[in-house]
TrEMBL record:
Provenance organism: Tilletia controversa (dwarf bunt fungus)
Sequence intervals crossing the membrane: 88-106, 118-135, 156-182, 202-220, 225-246, 362-383
Database matches in Pfam families: ABC2_membrane
Main location, first listed in the record: membrane
Keywords for the protein's UniProt record, in alphabetical order: Membrane, Transmembrane, Transmembrane helix, Transport
Protein name per the record: ABC-2 type transporter transmembrane domain-containing protein
Recorded GO CC terms: membrane
Compositionally skewed regions (Basic and acidic residues) per UniProt: 410-425
Region (Disordered): 406-425
Topology of this chain in the membrane: Multi-pass membrane protein
Gene Ontology MF annotations: ABC-type transporter activity
Residue ranges constituting the ABC-2 type transporter transmembrane domain according to the UniProt record: 64-275
Location of this chain's protein in the cell: Membrane
């Protein structure tokens, strides 16, 4: 065929096959058929629903996209055995390790047990850093898949993608945090009943907080390493200034006045620890008592009764004023033993926490979760949609397809046989 049309390296022809085809009856009939199809299409009445469907950017509506993409995300999480095993294993082992490290401290009434409960809660919160570093590589891989294949193909919109990332983690985080909570709570022996349900609910809210925050940072990070660095950097601030590592009165003034109330961990600690110790009596061990020698001729009741309450009064259910600090008892040798805390609420007040605000704190924590969700959508749009679109090259000129022609060459400059012969030489 190449030899006949003169397209070979050494072939020549005296006929212009392109011109012959354009002048042939076949080309004329084909052009006539195309024009007829175009006239028929323009004369056809378009229904409003067809016109609306044709103008849509995506093949299906947003709700259908959400249902399908979220279902796919949940299926993907279920099939990702390595990720699920790591998540479940870390939660379970961390709960066993922390719970056994503070075994039965919830039933202990000493001052040392108050500190142990505080650190048991703090260690439970720190585990979120490792869990977030498991989550972020998965989110980054899914985001890369969306940017390379699914967004250019107009399979679904970017808000649907972010929603699927956020919702896809919720069921497994609920399961994982429950597996952490069960050994952690019961091995430490925190108060049961309604307090146990309240404590479990707080752990679930916390799982929503760290997962939404980790997702917000993952959607803008180029790789898992950067995402891990960003998450660790921001979390170092909320961990350091929540009042556990350094009591609030000992924090520098600059950090104490704004970072302490800004940290979400402040409200988590206040709620979890407050739920565990509020209304619980404190009884100092012998080594925790401050030994005082009353003045000559005075008893411990006479010497300390003006600002504190005796242990006998507490045990008998006597009246106690709110301003009374701690309690005292008369030792066998006549000396006075003073304990700085009477109950768990006084311990909380020493670190500027208030258990009566724990229901308010739940609202604040939910507000942080909502803010993280808003942050995830905003950062994805700014860094993955808007910022990238502004850097894309702009094509100048008229947009649109060339008119359909039977020859397919109306918009291409016709080459003569002489020009092709020159190019072949």
């Amino acid at each position: 065929m190449l030899e006949v049309i003169g397209a070979g390296a050494s072939s020549t022809t005296k006929q212009d096959w392109h011109s012959l085809y354009k002048e042939s009856p076949m080309a004329t009939q084909l052009q006539h058929d195309l024009e007829g199809i175009a006239k028929e299409s323009s004369a056809r009445e378009v229904r409003p629903e067809d016109e609306k469907r044709g103008s849509r950017q995506y093949a299906v509506g947003t709700m259908t996209q959400l249902r399908l993409v979220i279902g796919r995300q949940l299926t993907f999480q279920h099939r990702n055995v390595t990720y699920m095993d790591a998540k479940i294993g870390l939660n379970l082992l961390a709960g066993l390790f922390i719970g056994s490290s503070f075994w039965a401290q919830g039933q202990n009434l000493s001052v040392a047990s108050l500190q142990n409960k505080l650190f048991a809660v703090f260690m439970a919160l720190v585990i979120s850093t490792s869990l977030a570093q498991q989550l972020q590589p998965v989110i980054i891989n899914l985001r890369s898949l969306y940017e390379v294949r699914e967004r250019p193909s107009k399979m679904y919109s970017w808000p649907v993608a972010v929603t699927a990332y956020l919702i896809g983690e919720v069921p497994w985080n609920l399961i994982g945090s429950t597996l952490f909570w069960a050994p952690w709570f019961w091995m430490i022996r925190f108060p049961g009943g309604q307090r146990a349900v309240f404590n479990w609910g707080l752990i679930q809210i916390f799982s929503l907080y760290w997962s939404t925050f980790a997702t917000a940072l993952a959607v803008i990070s180029p790789n898992p390493l950067i995402a891990s660095v960003l998450f660790s950097t921001f979390f170092s601030f909320v961990i350091i200034f929540c009042g556990v590592v350094q009591p609030p009165p000992q924090l520098p003034y600059f950090w104490r006045v704004w970072m302490f109330p800004l940290s979400p961990f402040t409200y988590l600690v206040e709620t979890l620890v407050g739920n565990a110790v509020t209304g619980i009596p404190v009884r100092c061990t012998q080594s925790e008592l401050n030994i005082l020698q009353p003045p000559q001729g005075q008893s411990c009741d006479q010497y300390l009764g003006g600002f504190s309450t005796s242990l006998d009064t507490l045990n008998s259910g006597g009246a106690v004023t709110a301003i009374d600090s701690g309690y005292f008892q008369t030792l066998s040798n006549g000396q006075c033993g003073y304990c700085q805390f009477r109950d768990g609420d006084q311990f909380l007040a020493s670190v500027q926490l208030d258990a009566s605000l724990r229901y308010r704190d739940i609202g604040i924590l939910l507000a942080y979760v909502i803010f993280n969700v808003f942050l995830a959508y905003s950062l994805f749009f700014l860094f993955r949609i808007g910022f990238k679109s502004s850097k894309a090259p702009k094509v100048k000129g008229k947009v649109g397809a060339a008119p359909i022609s039977a020859t397919g060459q109306d918009h291409v400059k016709e080459e003569t046989p002489d020009k092709r012969a020159v190019e072949s030489q």
